[in-house]
Q: What sequence folds into this?
C-alpha cells in the first residue's frame, strides 16, 4: 500500500510548526500505524533528514503513550484502540493521512507529534490515590464487593491516561480522565472513604491547570481507546457536589 | 460553599443546569397557557389579565429575567474558558464523532438565536402588554382590519392574532422554535448529567425525555402560531371589541 502523509513538524515548544508532506510506499496492510511511522523515519534518516518525533512505549495498547490525532480522530479511525493497535488496512490505498499532535492548551507540543501530558500526572498527584492504611493483604474475598461495583471500578480503571479525551473535547476538558480515576476508587471500600477529598482536590487541580468545562457532548467517550463511559462523569459530578455541600 | 458555583468548573455547570431547568419549566407553563388560544380567546385573555402588572406577576417576571441573564452570562464565561482551554493551535482535520449530537456542539449559537427570538418576542408582546401596565403608558395602536385600533394590554388574543396575521412573523417564530428544539434536545438531558443524575441505564431514558419535552414545546408553540395565522381575520374580529372582565 502507498500513502501520502501530512505530518505536523515543530522543532521545539517555542517554534512555529507547519505541515510537511511525505510519501511512504510498499507498506503491508498488516503493518501497524507506528511501524509505518518507523518505516517513514528510517527513510528520513537514510535521506539525511530529521526523523519525526512521536510518543510510544508498550505498543500493545496498555501504556497510553501513543497520542496521534489521525484524520480528525484521536488514535485514528479505529474504534476502541490506541494508535499502536491500529493497522494500515484501516486506510484506503493511495489515500492521504493527516497526522497532528494533541491540541489542547494544557498539553503543549514539545516536538513534532510529542506533547507534554504532565498535567494529567499533576491531577493524579492532587488526589488520585489512597492514603488510608489498608494494612497487609487481607484474605481473598474477606471484603465483600458486589460484582457490579467491581466491574464498574475495573471499567474506569482501564483508563490509560493517554489524553485522548481532553484532546478530542471541543472544550479541552479533562473530565473523562478525572472521572475515570475518581470512579475507579469511589466504587471500592478502600477508596470510598476519601472520596470527598479526592473529588474536590482533583477537580480543583484540573481547573487550575487550564482544562475546559465539560458540556456533555460525549465526544470523549466516542474517541476513548478504552471506551470509558461518560456515566463516570455523572458520578464525578455527584461526588464533587455532595462533597461541596458538606463543606 | 458559596464560591464553588462561581470558581469551579463543575459548580459553574450546575448554575447552567439549574437556571436551564427553571427556564424549561417556565417555557412549559407558557406553552400550556398559549394552548388556551385554540379553545377560547376569552379564556386566554383571562390569563393575560391575571398575569398583568400584579405583584406576583412582576416578581415572576423579575425572577425569569434573572434566570435568563444568569444562564446567558454563564454561557459566555464557560465558552470563553473553553476556547482558551482548547489552545491557539486548532486541528486541521476534525470529524463529527459517532453518537455526538450536532446540537451538543452548537449550544451557544443556538442559544444566541433563542435570545434574539426572545428580544423580538418582548417587542411584539411584552412591550405592548405588561410594560404598558408598568409604565401606565397609552395602549398600543395597530391597524386591524383596515382601521386603527387600540389594543388593551390584557387583550393578548387580539395581539397574537394581529402579530401572526403577518406571514413573516410566523416564519421568524418557527425558526425561533426550531432553534429552541435543538437547544433543548441536548439541554434537557444534559442538565441531569451535570447534577449527577445519570448513568448508562438512564442515558437512553433521559435522551428520550429530552426529545419528548423539546418536541412538545415546539409543537405546542408552533400549532398556536400557525392557527393564529390561518384564523387571524376571524380571531381579530372576535376580539376587537373585547373589554376586560376582572
A:
Amino acid at each position: 500500500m502507498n500513502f501520502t502523509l501530512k505530518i505536523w513538524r515543530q522543532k521545539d515548544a517555542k517554534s512555529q510548526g507547519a505541515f510537511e508532506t511525505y510519501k511512504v510506499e510498499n507498506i503491508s496492510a498488516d503493518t501497524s500505524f507506528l511501524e509505518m511511522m518507523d518505516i517513514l523515519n528510517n527513510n528520513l534518516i537514510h535521506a539525511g533528514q530529521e526523523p519525526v518525533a512521536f510518543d510510544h512505549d508498550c505498543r500493545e495498547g496498555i501504556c497510553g503513550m501513543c497520542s496521534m490525532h489521525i484524520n480528525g480522530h484521536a488514535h485514528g479511525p479505529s474504534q476502541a484502540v490506541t494508535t499502536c493497535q491500529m493497522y494500515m488496512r484501516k486506510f484506503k490505498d493511495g489515500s492521504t493521512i493527516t497526522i497532528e499532535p494533541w491540541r489542547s492548551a494544557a498539553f503543549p507540543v514539545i516536538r513534532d507529534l510529542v506533547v507534554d501530558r504532565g498535567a494529567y500526572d499533576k491531577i493524579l498527584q492532587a488526589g488520585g490515590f489512597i492514603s488510608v492504611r489498608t494494612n497487609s493483604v487481607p484474605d481473598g474475598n474477606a471484603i465483600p464487593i458486589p460484582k457490579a461495583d467491581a466491574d464498574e471500578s475495573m471499567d474506569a480503571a482501564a483508563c490509560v491516561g493517554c489524553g485522548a479525551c481532553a484532546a478530542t473535547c471541543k472544550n479541552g476538558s479533562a473530565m473523562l480522565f478525572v472521572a475515570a480515576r475518581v470512579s475507579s476508587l469511589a466504587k471500592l471500600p478502600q477508596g470510598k472513604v476519601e472520596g470527598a477529598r479526592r473529588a474536590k482536590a482533583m477537580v480543583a487541580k484540573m481547573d487550575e491547570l487550564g482544562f475546559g468545562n465539560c458540556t456533555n457532548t460525549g465526544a470523549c467517550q466516542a474517541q476513548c481507546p478504552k471506551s470509558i463511559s461518560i456515566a463516570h462523569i455523572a458520578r464525578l459530578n455527584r461526588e464533587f457536589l455532595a462533597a461541596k455541600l458538606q463543606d | 460553599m458559596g464560591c464553588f458555583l462561581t470558581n469551579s468548573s463543575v459548580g459553574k455547570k450546575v448554575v447552567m443546569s439549574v437556571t436551564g431547568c427553571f427556564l424549561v419549566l417556565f417555557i412549559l407553563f407558557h406553552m400550556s397557557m398559549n394552548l388556551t388560544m385554540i379553545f377560547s380567546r376569552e379564556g386566554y385573555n383571562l390569563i393575560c389579565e391575571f398575569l398583568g402588572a400584579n405583584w406576583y406577576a412582576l416578581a415572576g417576571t423579575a425572577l425569569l429575567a434573572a434566570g435568563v441573564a444568569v444562564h446567558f452570562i454563564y454561557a459566555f464565561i464557560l465558552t470563553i474558558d473553553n476556547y482558551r482551554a482548547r489552545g491557539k493551535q486548532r486541528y486541521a482535520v476534525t470529524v463529527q464523532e459517532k453518537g455526538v449530537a450536532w446540537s451538543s456542539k452548537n449550544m451557544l449559537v443556538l442559544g444566541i438565536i433563542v435570545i434574539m427570538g426572545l428580544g423580538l418576542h418582548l417587542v411584539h408582546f411584552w412591550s405592548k402588554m405588561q410594560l404598558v401596565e408598568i409604565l401606565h403608558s397609552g395602549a398600543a395602536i395597530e391597524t386591524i382590519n383596515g382601521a386603527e385600533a387600540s389594543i388593551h394590554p390584557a387583550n393578548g388574543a387580539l395581539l397574537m392574532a394581529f402579530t401572526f396575521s403577518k406571514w413573516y412573523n410566523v416564519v421568524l417564530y418557527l425558526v425561533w422554535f426550531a432553534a429552541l428544539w435543538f437547544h433543548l434536545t441536548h439541554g434537557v438531558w444534559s442538565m441531569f448529567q451535570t447534577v449527577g443524575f445519570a448513568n448508562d441505564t438512564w442515558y437512553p431514558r433521559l435522551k428520550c425525555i429530552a426529545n419528548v419535552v423539546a418536541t412538545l414545546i415546539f409543537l405546542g408553540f408552533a400549532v398556536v402560531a400557525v392557527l393564529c395565522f390561518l384564523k387571524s381575520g376571524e380571531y381579530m374580529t372576535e376580539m376587537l371589541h373585547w373589554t376586560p372582565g376582572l
Summary: Chain B has a mean pLDDT of 94.
